[in-house]
Design brief:
heterodimer, A: 169 residues, mainly alpha, B: 277 residues, alpha+beta, Thrombin, subunit H, six-stranded antiparallel beta barrel, 12 strands, 30% helix
């Protein structure tokens, strides 16, 4: 079971990175909408695992995406931020249920899952675009990008997460 | 001491997070002020290789359109060549086309990763230092300019697109010699801005913008775009002009890299003059 878990996550990592850089980074709808679906890796990552390793994996994920898309380290910073905040977000979205030993993502209502995903996407995009624009002078631009790209990413992530729903974990 | 260690163990995730965040911030800030690190970009062998493989599939689909574009360009060049007797600028002697006598040599290449939706866009090409590409060479497409080579690996190179906040090229208005700087305000990927054109110059919407003479990267008179709209800047002393690019930046494939043979000499001369001041 444990090796299975590693295997699934490694495959997920590779597939999501490839899907992100070869498909999603090329969408460019309206010139700037490139949805980020690799956030699903953080969404799907097993819950009761060593948090430090999770942070390091998130760092690697963000860094890989950054190297591919020439975006300095914006993806890295955004990804480790949501990885670090994930326990708090989960506790906020799922309430007491989260603290039970046999808590599973699939056992909570769909709406709570979406809320959890929405928080991840929104925080990720906020950090990402703040770093990309790197000045508060263009706050309209930042806000526009955060809201528009977040919504597109969220819709795509919901679609993908229902397509490849996790049954076993 | 015990308490410090306890503190570290208790907050190890927070500390790890802060540490990793600091690393990424350091990367970001350092590259904002200087060229991006040599290996961590899309021109290294792994990322370049993956882009190249994916490109070899996707380029097949666009072959027909690309062929049409190339035929179009060939027609233009043939037209130019056949009429060259009437064109006094080009010497008729065939030795003029020997590469030794030319100021500029051209290397053809293909885009394997395009980008236009970020604020700082970089493009990856499938030729690198082994093909003779060096930093600061100019890159053009059949229809207009594209950017400047920022760094190279063995087989790939990364181009700083004109759609980049760091991009600053010399451009002029056709038939006048007034030149200004070409920048990008990050709003629209088919529109760039030309600033520092003095107020007394007469402008018209639709005028053509070409590369200027005071750049050692691009030859003079390479087309860039046409004037879309213009307005005086806040100090009312010079224009800021919106330019529609001739290139469709979201749909380009074949590019030419321009090597100016005299570049080193020009730069040496310029730096010597500056030192003399």
């Amino acid at each position: 079971m444990a090796t299975n878990l590693y295997f699934i996550n490694i495959i997920r990592f590779i597939v999501l990175v490839i899907a992100q850089v070869l498909v999603c980074n090329r969408i460019g709808y309206m010139g700037f909408i490139n949805p980020m679906i690799y956030i699903l890796f953080i969404y799907w990552y097993p819950i009761k695992q060593n948090k430090s390793i999770f942070l390091i994996v998130a760092f690697l994920l963000g860094f890989t995406i950054d190297v591919f898309s020439d975006t300095l380290a914006f993806h890295t910073a955004a990804t480790i931020t949501i990885a670090f905040l994930r326990p708090s977000i989960m506790r906020f979205c799922f309430g007491v249920n989260y603290d039970f030993q046999n808590f599973k993502l699939t056992s909570v209502p769909r709406l709570q899952q979406i809320a959890y995903l929405a928080f991840l996407v929104f925080i990720h995009h906020t950090v990402f675009f703040l770093l990309e624009v790197f000045s508060f002078a263009n706050y309209i631009l930042i806000l526009k990008k955060i809201f528009v790209v977040s919504s597109v990413s969220l819709v795509l992530c919901i679609l993908f997460s229902s397509l490849f729903s996790v049954k076993k974990e | 001491m015990q308490r410090i260690i306890n503190f570290i163990i208790r907050n190890k995730n927070l500390l790890l997070y802060l540490f990793l965040f600091a690393i990424s911030l350091a990367f970001t800030i350092q590259s904002h002020s200087y060229h991006q690190s040599k290996y961590f970009n899309s021109a290294n062998s792994i990322t370049g290789g993956i882009y190249n493989t994916s490109n070899s599939f996707s380029s097949y689909i666009n072959l027909k359109k690309e062929n049409e574009k190339l035929v179009q360009e060939n027609m233009q060049l043939r037209n130019y060549l056949m009429n060259k007797e009437y064109n006094v600028e080009i010497p008729i002697d065939s030795t003029a086309f020997d590469s030794i006598f030319l100021d500029y040599t051209i290397i053809g290449s293909r885009i394997i990763k395009n980008s236009y939706s970020h604020l700082d866009n970089y493009i990856t090409l499938n030729k690198g230092s082994e093909d003779g590409i060096k930093q600061d060479m100019g890159v053009v497409t059949p229809t207009g300019i594209l950017g400047i080579v920022e760094n190279t690996s063995k087989h790939f190179s990364r181009v700083q697109s004109v759609l980049n906040r760091k991009s600053n090229l010399n451009a002029k208005i056709k038939h006048t010699n007034n030149f200004g700087s070409l920048i990008w305000n990050t709003k629209d990927y088919n529109t760039v801005q030309l600033v520092d054109i003095p107020r007394r110059v007469k402008l018209k919407v639709g005028d053509t913008i070409l590369t200027g003479a005071s750049s050692s990267i691009f030859p003079e008179n390479i087309p860039i775009g046409t004037i879309k709209a213009f307005d005086l800047n806040t100090s009312k002393s010079s224009y800021s002009i919106d330019i529609t690019l001739f290139n469709d930046m979201s749909n380009i494939k074949n590019v030419y890299i321009i090597n100016n043979k005299n570049r080193l000499e020009i730069e040496q001369l310029e730096s010597e003059t500056q030192n003399g001041d």
